[in-house]
Amino acid sequence: MSEGAPPSKRQCSVLLRRETEETSPRKNILEFVGSDTNLHDVVLLVQNRKFYVNKKQLAVHSKFFHRMFFGGFEETEKDEIEIKDLDASQFHNFLEAVYGVLYVDDSIVEGLIELADRLDCEHILKKCKDHLMEMKNGPSNKLLRMAIRYDMKPLKTKILSSIKTKRDLRDLIRPTTDGFDHETMNFLLEKSLGMEQGPLFFEDGFPGSSTNESARTVSRWLAMRDTD
User: Fold this and answer.
1) What tens digit of pLDDT does each residue of 203-221 get?
2) Cα(71)–Cα(65) distance, rounded to whole angstroms?
3) Please, how many CA atoms are within 13 Å of residue 133, restricted to the half-sphere of its CB?
4) 152-182, pLDDT tens digit by residue?
5) Which of 94, 100, 139 is nearest to 121 (CA)?
6) Which residue in 191, 153, 151 sits closest to 172, CA to CA?
7) Domains observed in the chain
């Protein structure tokens, strides 16, 4: 296509589909509205949204719910239970994953793995980890923080071993190093020193400094250097 020429119909179709996929919210597959009383025996209240679910179905998949429903707690006898500090949309995704109709994708994996970890749901946690290992386009900084948080050593190793240039290192420590462990920060500092000796002040923050101070030192050094 020559410069300035209008896109073809096929190109317009591809662009429209891509834009729609990126901007359209994900549609729910199941609605937990309680229209059939034979399919639920408890109501979970999350952010004022009611989810009509089956205790045994949740207990099979989640140790958290197994303890809640069958562990002798006061919730055992309740018909409606409020669960605080959860996002209703993310909880809906979690329920669809439990009911086997939701596949993990890039748009939901961060929220889903957080709930799977909190609600002690091992098989969904594994699905999320498997997906993260296969992600190719996710922000490396976010992926690394998730790898550290959920003890995903293979993913952590994969990300750190991909550092080849100063730009790779810069992208990895931005926008934040919150959640980076000392092992990771030490690796990044040694990696940066191995690329090329930095200014003298760089050494001041290396061996005995805190993680945050070390991160600031790396950031200052990288800011002084030309990009690749």
Assistant:
1) 333 333 345 555 565 555 5
2) 9
3) 13
4) 999 999 999 988 888 888 889 888 888 899 9
5) 94
6) 191
7) 27-137 (3.30.710.10), 140-228 (no CATH)
